[in-house]
């Protein structure tokens, strides 16, 4: 029995990111159907139309799976506002991405590797530029990035 390899895509929250990544996945899959594709979605601040877009994708194109990750565990209390001035947006984004690493690993195990009767092979993790820290997760599973 020929098991498909799995590609996991992780777009950064935002319409421009998911639309372009879904289009890339469609073109890739049209060229080679030997793999299946799962999108791992982080939903911290999506407007309603983003979720409607994902729902319409899931309903209209069954080639791909969309897994919404749960929120990360609560973070430590924020510093006082006067100290927030000294934190950079890059640091905040980095902390945000780091807080999801365990959920990404769990989702790969539960929704990708062991989601069917036969164990699936993780072929690669396709991450958006802002999710480069997730490469550590791919390395844990010895997958390509």
Automatic annotation (TrEMBL):
Region (Disordered): 68-87
Domain of life where this protein originates: Eukaryota
Alphabetized InterPro entries for the sequence: UDP-glycosyltransf_plant
GO MF assignments: UDP-glucosyltransferase activity
Biased composition range(s): Pro residues: 69-82
PANTHER family linked to this entry: GLYCOSYLTRANSFERASE
Family statement drawn from the similarity comment of this UniProt entry: Belongs to the UDP-glycosyltransferase family.
Stated name of the protein: Uncharacterized protein
Annotated organism of origin: Camellia sinensis var. sinensis (China tea)
């Amino acid at each position: 029995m020929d098991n498909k390899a799995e590609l996991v895509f992780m777009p950064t929250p935002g319409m421009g990111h998911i639309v372009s990544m879904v289009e890339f996945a469609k073109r890739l899959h049209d060229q080679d159907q030997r793999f299946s594709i799962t999108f791992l979605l982080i939903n911290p601040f999506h407007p309603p139309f983003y979720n409607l877009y994902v729902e319409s994708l899931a309903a209209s194109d069954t080639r791909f799976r969309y897994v919404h990750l749960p929120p990360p565990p609560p973070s430590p209390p924020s510093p006082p506002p006067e100290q927030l001035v000294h934190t950079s947006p890059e640091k905040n984004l980095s902390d945000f991405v780091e807080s999801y690493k365990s959920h990404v690993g769990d989702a790969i195990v539960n929704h990708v590797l062991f989601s069917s009767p036969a164990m699936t092979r993780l072929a690669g993790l396709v991450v958006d530029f802002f999710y480069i820290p997730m490469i550590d997760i791919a390395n844990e599973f010895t997958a390509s990035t």
